[in-house]
Write a structure and sequence with these properties.
The protein is α/β, with parallel strands linked by helices and 302 residues long. Helix content is 34%, strand content 28%. Helix 8 packs across helix 11. It is globular.
Length: 302
């Protein structure tokens, strides 16, 4: 049975349809990623699935409950990590967790019993009396994640959970999220970090202009849409090199002063670069970011 199931989901604002006939299935125990450029419809999709926005068409079932008809009942078993921290600065670390537990009508005693485990999980053991204003950005983000677990949810919804964090804090959050999936929790994740999606997600869907345009595991999507080798080349004479070396790649793309050469075998292209001292290059395996840019384009979205 799916944790979250949506069929033919639609939402329109005025003349703009922001979600267009979307189908989703999130399975128990998986981390499912929802990716897309700005304006693709990701946040609206999350709001629809949580019953916070009313759909114009389609069907939603969340944890066995029809949404929006019984969205409140379903959300009692869901934890949400919003894109921006909304911790109460007037409360201490422990008080933020205690007050949030009241939203779920949890007995004070059960919340108190869970505090040590949640604080340890967030790496905030010993900081329960600290004020929110004294915490670093990484600490606040970890506390927001711990707060979302106060009701021991079956599904955790995370909207860009590591935006604004330094690499150390980001890696710590990744470790905590992997631990949750190992414990059997289901995660629904939106992110603009392709490395994050590639590391964490068992499956993911790429959205653009309200529609799903690809779905599968990160490895399968890379194998399906991108050649295995990528050579990035830049420097004086890069255009001449590109024209002379087209036969050495399956596909070439120029972005600014950089040429991206995609190939099943990079050896011929690399051989030509060894004789080009004025050019700099990077040879790397294909990534989820290559898939994302190929499917959604390189134009900026506001």
């Amino acid at each position: 049975m799916s944790v979250l199931r949506a069929r033919a989901l639609r939402k329109r604002y005025a003349d703009l349809e922001v979600v267009s006939g979307l189908d989703l299935d999130v399975q128990p125990g998986e981390c499912f990623g929802l990716l897309g450029p700005n304006g693709a419809g990701k946040t609206t999709t999350l709001r629809l699935c949580l019953g916070l926005t009313h759909p114009d068409g389609g069907e939603i079932e969340l944890l066995g409950e029809p949404v929006p008809a019984r969205a409140r009942e379903a959300r009692r078993r869901v934890g949400v990590v919003p894109q921006f921290d909304n911790l109460d600065p007037d409360f201490t670390v422990a008080e933020n967790l205690e007050v949030f537990g009241r939203y779920f009508s949890l007995p004070r005693e059960s919340v108190q019993a869970r505090l040590p485990q949640l604080l340890d999980y967030a790496g905030l053991a010993g900081r329960e009396k600290a004020r929110i204003t004294t915490l670093s950005g990484g600490m606040k983000r970890r506390l927001t994640l711990a707060r979302a677990l106060i009701n021991d949810p079956q599904l955790l919804v995370l909207d860009e959970p590591t935006t604004g964090l330094d690499p150390q804090a980001r890696h710590l959050i990744w470790e905590r999220l992997r631990r949750l999936t190992h414990e059997g929790k289901t995660l629904l994740l939106t992110t603009h970090f392709m490395e994050e999606a590639e590391r964490l997600c068992h499956r993911l869907a790429i959205m653009d202009r309200g529609r799903l345009i690809a779905i599968g595991s990160p490895r399968d999507l890379i194998a399906e849409h991108i050649e295995p080798h990528v050579v990035e080349v830049h420097g004086n004479g890069v255009e001449r090199w590109m024209e002379a070396s087209r036969s050495h790649a399956s596909r070439m793309e120029r972005v600014g002063d950089t040429v991206f050469a995609y190939a099943a075998d990079a050896t011929p292209a690399l051989a030509t670069l060894e004789r080009q001292s004025e050019l700099s290059y990077l040879h790397r395996p294909a990534s989820l970011e290559d898939v994302f840019l190929k499917l959604t384009g390189r134009d900026l979205r506001d």
